[in-house]
Amino acid sequence: MKKADMQKIGQEGEKIYAEIKSKYEPQYDGKFLAIEVDSKDVYMADTTIEAVEMAKKDHPDKVFYVVKIGFDSVETMANYFL
């Protein structure tokens, strides 16, 4: 996948999450959402892997924007590297 495609997924995913986050925060803080940016389909699970596996059932050839509910992207990335 091209860098430009990944940037588009990141930008679109951030926009979609900004629009829908009030539906998930704060009651689902700590869970993960996988967002398919073209369809705007959203999949929630306890882990990143579970959320992506759910999303792949409907969109097997897509790449997903994944966000940890209640955390900004910097906090989410920091948690992966600690």
Comma- or semicolon-separated keywords:
3 helices; disordered C terminus; 3 strands; 82 residues; alpha+beta
Q: How would you characterize the overall build of this protein?
A:
The chain is an alpha+beta fold and 82 residues long. The protein has one domain (3-81). The protein is 46% helix and 17% strand. It is built from 3 helices and 3 strands, in the order H-E-E-H-E-H. The protein has helices spanning 3-20, 48-58, 73-81; strands spanning 32-36, 41-45, 65-68. The chain has a 3-stranded antiparallel β-sheet, sandwiched between helices. Strand 1 and strand 2 (41-45) form a beta hairpin. The longest helix has 18 residues, at 3-20. The protein is globular. The termini are far apart. The model is unreliable at 74-82 (pLDDT under 50).
If strands are numbered along the chain, what order do they take across the biggest sheet? Answer: 2-1-3
Number of helices: 3
Structural class: alpha+beta
Output the helix-strand order. HEEHEH
Helix content: 40-55%
Number of domains: 1
Report the strand count.
3
Largest sheet: 3 strands, antiparallel
Q: What best-fitting shape do the alpha-carbon axes yield?
A: globular
Indicate the low-confidence ranges by residue numbers: 74-82
> What is the CA-based Rg, rounded?
12 Å
